[in-house]
Amino acid sequence: MTNDDFNGVPVGGVSSSGDDLRRAAKQRLKAKRDFTNYLGIWAAVTLFLVVIWFFSGGIGSYFWPIWPFLGMGIGAFFIGLDAYGPGRRYITDSDIDAEIERMRRRSGS
């Protein structure tokens, strides 16, 4: 059994075959592109809502666009985590070796 294959199931979602690595790379690139697209949409919606607010009451009135900004900001945070966060890293040989070493140290063997 290799660290890339556990009863036919790839460890960390990616096996060492070229096709699987290519598929994983495409998924990561798509997540990063989706995040960039979302930021552009967020900026456009923000600008649009500020223009509506400005012409409907403007300075001195309640700044209601803050609520959609915050809602979309929460979405941007999670989309960004999906694209760039720690969960986007895959298990490697060195990760497995380091975990085995930590387990050995804890057990005292």
Summarize the structure.
This protein is mainly alpha-helical and 109 residues long. It is built from 3 helices and 2 strands, in the order E-E-H-H-H.
Number of helices: 3
Total DSSP E strands? 2
- Helix and strand composition category: mainly alpha
From the alpha-carbon coordinates, what is the Rg to the nearest angstrom?
A: 23 Å
Averaged pLDDT, please?
79
Distance between the termini: 23 Å
Largest sheet: 2 strands, antiparallel
Strand arrangement in the largest pleated sheet:
1-2
Hey, roughly how much beta strand do the residues contain? under 5%
Ordered list of secondary-structure elements with their pairings:
Blueprint: E1 5-6, E2 9-10, H1 18-56, H2 66-84, H3 93-107
Antiparallel strand pairs: 1-2
Helix pairs in contact: 1-2
